[in-house]
Design a protein that fits this description.
- This protein is α/β, with parallel strands linked by helices.
- The protein has 3 domains: 63 residues, no CATH class; 266 residues, Aspartate Aminotransferase, domain 2 (3-Layer(aba) Sandwich); 120 residues, Aspartate Aminotransferase, domain 1.
- Helices cover 42% and strands 13% of the residues.
- A hairpin with a 2-residue loop joins strand 11 and strand 12.
């Protein structure tokens, strides 16, 4: 009887829930947005893992906790997390916070729907196609196909899978053993997702041919042709070339137009990984970096990077409009894609993907685009280039700073040489000692909480900093602080 009576009332206290949300949203606005974007606040309140575990009390218990304790926990989570919206966060290829994109993210989380059918996501099914069409137009395609995926790595994997199916459609049913040994071609500076994709799809990392790059990190088309001929001589079937527009470290753009000529001669699928550099297409001043991209068969583009839509927002774009994406991935599950629906089933796009449930990633980009317009987004891109140019020029003026390479994009790579190493380039241990500078400065800035910037080695180059500005909230004062802080933190090394 008690069990029956329990069903008469909701098992959720809506009033208390709404009160909690209002207070939680206020904490987000104050602690996450206002303080997170305040240059006088810390980028990160650093704690060692053991200490942080004690502070947060992460263990899950049998009983629930009162509202005020939960709100305190929300504050702690924000406090001890990295503020990627901070104007002195330069660590990743994404940063900053767009309020309209954030509103879009909150709304889609609230609606909690999936992108697979029109009946469950009518607004977003229509919206996704509008946004994808706009992105295709910027590439230079009048028609095509595409979808939003969980990230650039998955978009690159989609490209590889669709290219394989396009050449060998039997592989969908019969598997890899029914087709020749396949060969993939990409530059030495490509994103590591190409290796992961080849492994995941059963192509094998041994069948990736790494093409040489020039001194700027760009693929050399002549070496691509050489590697294709080598693969053929080794009885492998060349089916996929990946060109990168905006390499992860140096920000290099492969010469797509020349690579497209090679692919056309050998009838190979050309994919352009523009996850990082694709947003340059919005700029009339800088879109030349992607000359030839319209000749690609597929493109990956991550608006969550340079355009600040927030993670994740990755578009996989396809020039083909014959339904290749659908044929490659469809499984025709009748419990989801019923054949006797009362509306046009062409709007049920979920069978195009390898996922079933798929988050709505188009709305945050759409709302941000509506707010700023194409011209506003172009200005955002141009400003990022201008910030990088300013910083590069300042580095050239300062003793102890040395560019790794003149920036073509917004990746600024440089060494800081402390006073103890200046003039000692000829010493046998110079490179060894210089390679330890960036990690030590990074540790100091993290523990101080003043800023964050990435570092890495590359080939025979020892550790250097890679600074990236995508956040429109960054000012010249922040960039000057960045250089001054590196000097402060490293002058005694």
């Amino acid at each position: 009887m008690a069990e029956h009576n329990a069903l008469l009332c909701p098992a959720l206290d809506k009033v208390a829930g709404e009160e909690f949300l209002q207070k939680a949203f206020q904490i987000m606005l104050e602690e996450g947005v206002r303080k997170g974007m305040d240059a006088s606040e810390k980028v990160c309140d650093w704690k060692e893992p053991e200490e942080l575990q004690q502070i947060l009390d992460l263990d899950l218990k049998d009983g629930g906790e009162p509202q005020e304790r939960l709100l305190d926990r929300c504050r702690d989570v924000i406090r001890y997390s990295v503020k990627t919206c901070h104007p002195r966060f330069f660590n990743q290829l994404f940063s900053g916070l767009d309020p309209h994109a954030l509103a879009g993210r909150l709304i889609t989380e609230m609606l909690n729907t999936s992108q697979y059918t029109y009946e469950i996501a009518p607004v977003f099914v229509l919206m996704e196609e509008v946004v994808l069409k706009k992105l295709r137009e910027l590439i230079g395609w009048e028609e095509g196909d595409g979808l939003f995926s969980p990230g650039g790595s998955i978009s690159n994997m989609y490209a590889m899978n669709v290219a394989r199916y396009h050449r060998f459609p039997d592989c969908k049913q019969k598997g890899n053993w029914a087709i020749p040994k396949l060969a993939v071609f990409t530059s030495q500076e490509c994103h590591y997702s190409i290796q992961k994709g080849a492994a995941f799809l059963g192509i094998g990392t041994d069948n990736i041919y790494l093409v040489a790059v020039d001194e700027k990190g760009k693929m050399i088309p002549a070496d691509l042709e050489k590697k294709i001929n080598q693969a053929k001589s080794e009885r492998a079937f060349p089916f996929f070339v990946n060109a990168t527009c905006g390499t992860t470290v140096l920000g290099a753009f492969d010469p797509v137009a020349e690579i497209a000529e090679v692919c056309a001669r050998h009838k190979i699928w050309l994919h352009v990984d523009a996850a990082w550099g694709g947003s340059a297409l919005l700029s009339q001043r800088h879109r030349h970096l992607l000359n030839g991209v319209e000749r690609a068969d597929s493109v990956a583009w991550n608006p969550h990077k340079m355009l600040m839509t927030g993670l994740q927002c990755s578009a996989f774009l396809l020039r083909d409009n014959s339904g290749l994406l659908q044929r490659c991935h469809c499984a025709e599950a009748t419990y989801l894609f019923q054949t006797d629906k009362f509306y046009n089933r062409a709007y049920d796009r979920g069978d195009q993907t390898i996922q079933c449930g798929r988050k709505v990633d188009c709305f945050k980009l759409w709302l941000m685009w509506k707010a700023n317009g194409t011209r506003g987004l172009e200005q955002r891109v141009d400003r990022a280039f201008a910030m990088t140019r300013y910083l590069a020029d300042e580095i050239k003026k300062r003793e102890g700073f040395q560019l790794v390479i003149e920036p073509e994009f917004i990746n600024l790579c440089f060494w800081y040489v402390p006073p103890s190493l200046r003039g000692k380039e000829g010493c046998t241990d110079y490179c060894l000692r210089l390679g330890k500078v960036a990690p030590m400065i990074k540790e100091r800035m993290m523990k101080k909480g003043s800023m964050m910037v990435s570092y890495q080695p590359l080939g025979n180059r020892v550790n250097f900093f890679r600074q990236v500005v995508t956040n429109p909230a960054v000012t010249r004062e922040d960039l000057d602080f960045f250089l001054d802080e590196i000097e402060r933190l490293g002058r005694d090394l």
